[in-house]
Predict the structure.
Amino acid sequence: MAGSDAHPAPAPMGGRLITPWTVFLGLLALIAVFFIGKRLIFGIGAVSNINDGYPWGIWMVFDLVIGAALSCGGLAMALMVYIFNKGQYHSLVRPALLASAFGYTLAATSLFFDLGRYWNFWHVFWPRYAQANSVIFELAVCMTAYILVMWIEFTPTVMDKLGMQGLRRKFEKWLYVFIGLGVLLPVMHQSSLGSMLVIFGPQINPLWQTPLLPLLFLISCLAMGYSMVIFEASVTSVGFRRPLERKILGSIGLVLKWFLIAWLIARFADLVWRGALDPAFVPGARSLMFWIENILVAIPLFLLWTPAWRGSPQKLFLAAVAMALQGIIYRINCYYTAYDTGDGWNYFPSLPEVMVSLGFIAMEILAFVIVVRLLPVLPAPEPSPNSAPAS
Amino acid sequence: MGMDRRNFLKAASGGTLAASCVPSVQARETRTMPEGAVGLLYDGTLCIGCRACMAACKAENDLPPEFNEIEGSAYWDAPLDLSGRTINIIKAYVGGDSDRKDTLDGYAFTKLSCFHCVDASCVSCCPVAAMTKDPVTGIVSHSKEACIGCRYCVAACPFGVPRFTYDETFPHIAKCQLCRHRMAQGKFAACAEVCPTGATIYGPVKELKKEIARRRALAPGTETEFPRGHIGSGDTHIAPIANYVDHVWGEKEIGGTQVLHLSAVPFDRLDKKPLPDVAPANVSESLQGRIYHGMIAPLAFLGALVFAAKRSAKALGEQGEAGGTDAGDDRKGE
């Protein structure tokens, strides 16, 4: 039997696809489709509040910059299981990978509709146009490649379902190449989401503008990735009424703790080194947001400090939520709070803009629910009538 | 053994990241002004605020008028700022009475249009080379045909120059291209051509800089000849030299620009906040260059990752089929 204590085998959840919840999510998705239609016919300005002072709205910053970071669970788990050889976390890889694949695919779709001249999008991949010095070029190529790699990594799940064992064994011989790419590519573009701001130069407040942006974004996205694994596992456990993999999640909490320490060291060493800490003590919206950002690191660090606390599902969950929130606030700070293009510019997302972003999240959750019900993604609940505990 | 591999990887990945993220001193050469660079000199002390340059600019670049409610202009072009339909604008600083020009307690004029940076952020950040800098004239121009509308240039430009037409179904970026299309006809920038006082003049940047040096060397109040249209046009008029501030806007800002401004009022009062001498494009490209130089670091990192993944996959395989191959089959009927 394949299933063991270390990693119980995945199995389809089964169950009904049409529930009040999925209908609600479907409706949210439909509203988003309506506003995207309006955007295509009447232009971005007809649905969005973006302007020349804030040319990037939430479709860019929330859906792409934050969405991709929240989708780092796949990277975080692949790094742990396949690179640092921690096989006991294997049961968390498939759900994390699936959530990431949907997250990234929808971030890319959202970005497509955010492009003013979307019909030219292929220019980014075309040698005659592509401009390699641009961070957006790096992001576009790297994220597209990663989306492909994630769906390739996910194919064994589909093969399991279809019972294509021969094909699967052949495929598995090459899977580690895709696993390698599945770590390299997000490391590249997650750091680029930070590098993207370097060219904004003096328009970004020194509290956030630093050549260390790529490293900070990378550490932050991994911390967010492990938080999201804890978050998603907790929510899945409650939502689908399944036992929580408490011990494994506690160990992930320990990993998260070290990432938080690494983050604090990098963040403050950089600020002190550049002598840029002064704006943090000037009363105002910027310094307030800066300290909120840091309190949100301190909270999970405190909650994850002792093994006993890491063993508590409530504390773990709270820590994960705080850390995910920290990553979100950090990115909002980098892209909005710190950004100053001169007096007189304002941006606050319009209702249609928010509905499009919400609709994309709804589509993502809906797709996740449907897939885990139909395909073997989540570990079979233990004890299961079909799998006698091995070893 | 497992520990060894882990440590190797930690060292490898950590080392790559550390090396790639340390700010580089001089990874990429600082761009210099092309020999034949052309540009504009705008001397705010000569400007009378007639906006003839704005009208000519719109006519020559096929741009529609913009109305605004503040001035109640339902019939004439009255933009308040640059936009997707206005690529050159004259703005006024108002500090006091209208009988004192070019003093802090009076009023002054300033111009905003593309500065044609030596090391332009928009050229560096455009993912599809829609923004390009001419290697001969140094003119920064934009290709609508190539543009994907990502608005990275709008966000990155420290002068707030490129603008976007958000309200159009098929939107586009708009910015001054120094009347590049008129040069083919032997003409020059329309704004300079129509300026009645020579406040805006066109010419090779080298000549413009000589003219700036000449004006700054003269004592305030000295009567002197000011060229109109372009440098060496022969069309001149005589006016007194103003009491210039000791700053030429565009000389050093963001690594230097091809459009230079003179003023008798400090530039920060003219909506021109202090900018560093270093081009952010240089910082950004140096950083990216460090990380991706020849793709060596990413490929080495990938090699280490694939190696580790192969070892781990084997270990997983020994524990049981990776991913539970057979189990999926067993539960198909659930």
Remarks:
- The first helix of chain B runs from residue 2 to 21.
- The first strand of chain B starts at residue 38 and ends at 43.
- Chain B touches chain A through 87 residues (CB under 8 Å).
